[in-house]
Amino acid sequence: MANTKRTLFLKRRLRVRNKIKKVTANVGRPRLSVHRSNKNISVQLIDDTNGVTIASASSQEKALGVVGKNNIEAATKVGAAIAERAKKAGVEVAYFDRGGFLFHGKVKALADAAREGGLKL
């Protein structure tokens, strides 16, 4: 298989996700999974032991006021929203699952906003 951008992304995503899933299964700590598209950014707080989503937030939500924007400001608002929803669900500590995305720009802004909101990553 050729090393195209997509295959390299998928390799990175599997490598990151498999390492995190091994750790979360033993500890029981949920993972904060990020997905970034060209138009939006979304995040889910996932409990891998039960296979359920505890909380989620997305830039598509009208309540956040960033619909249609995929920038650092939108990522910051989504990060703050997931931190607030995680607190309501009783989660204070999670593993950050960046998927295959590099940790800079929007993904870093989301993680920093979640940390400022009180979520320990």
Automatic annotation (TrEMBL):
Coiled coil: none
Keyword Glycosyltransferase on entry: no
CDD domains from the UniProt entry: Ribosomal_L18_L5e
Keywords for this protein: Ribonucleoprotein, Ribosomal protein, RNA-binding, rRNA-binding
GO MF annotation terms: 5S rRNA binding; structural constituent of ribosome
GO terms, biological process: translation
Oligomeric and partner information: Part of the 50S ribosomal subunit; part of the 5S rRNA/L5/L18/L25 subcomplex. Contacts the 5S and 23S rRNAs.
Family: Belongs to the universal ribosomal protein uL18 family.
Function comment: This is one of the proteins that bind and probably mediate the attachment of the 5S RNA into the large ribosomal subunit, where it forms part of the central protuberance.
Name assigned to this protein: Large ribosomal subunit protein uL18
Gene: rplR
